């Protein structure tokens, strides 16, 4: 631990967490939009991009490697450079004869690099800051992570849309977009090489063997499965977002698809503003509101209402698929309502995982929970495209509503501490 002024902390925490969120946005959100603009079917887009969740599912298993070999600081700088190289590779292979094969291979590299960067960045945060500064900066780091998502699925998508208009070529537009982003990550790597502090506690554990670390991790992993009602807890984590996991893959495709194909016919620029700018603002407001409500009365008092707030606004997609409104203002209002409800309801999900993780190994147990969360997003997303193309957008969104019901029912049986989250 080294003493840092507030000014020094501000020079690296915001940029580090912006750099953490941006690759996730590009791999999991922007890739879906790009492949749609390149002419892939909804079935292929949903199937292939859902596989990209896998690194975040299994990232707890290679965390001991990051902890032992080299420093967290080294992993951060190296992964940012590797992410930049991967983004440059995507930019160069988009115009190739088989863009899906080559760009998917590079997105896999980006996903693994990003997941490894997450492990190193979160660990470095705890090494470089005192407990007081960690608490003081937690809101800032989360805010800049959200800004990264906003920048990725909002401003960058809008930039790609403008490049489509200026160049008249979709392939060129997306190549330029990923090329710009590659340059940004090379700058991040150089910047953090100089600006990140060098805490004394962040060192490679040369005296600790990998086999010993793995053995310790296995013991911690097993202890997670000894928690009360853990089978029910895991099923809930997997199914709480069962409907949303399918909706999040298909919603941008629906918005971009032509009216003749059952979509809304928006341009790339319009999509970027609606979902990535206004939508993200409402998502953030919803999350903050959820946190305030949960802090006042506790998780148990609000979890069912938060779940309903997250799931009921999905009806706006049923209506839009039925009516296909041409008013851009109305579409923005509907998306804003759905995103606010999602942000409000997602708060309960995060708080529940934090509650389950409480105990001696809460950091590792929370990582395991997030792995199950990613798995719950990956599997439903894989078949969502084929299902949508089989039954059409309108019936697909009705199915999404039905798919939210298991998660709601399971809430009644969950072990929830009535005081968790409540202000003491």
CATH class of the largest domain: Mainly Alpha
* Beta-strand share of residues: under 5%
Look up the CATH topology of the largest domain: Growth Hormone, Chain: A
Q: How many H/I helical runs?
A: 18
CATH architecture of the largest domain: Up-down Bundle
Which sequence of SSEs, written as H and E, runs from N to C?
HHHHHHHHHHHHHHHHHH
Give the overall shape. Answer: globular
Number of strands: 0
Major sheet details:
none
Fraction of helical residues: over 70%
Secondary-structure-based class equals mainly alpha
What count of structural domains?
A: 2
- Output the radius of gyration: 21 Å
Intertermini distance? 30 Å
Any low-confidence stretches, pLDDT <50, length ≥5? none
Could you explain the architecture of this structure?
The chain has 424 residues and is mainly alpha-helical. The chain is built from 18 helices and no strands. Helix 6 runs antiparallel to helix 7 and helix 11 (230-239) runs antiparallel to helix 18.
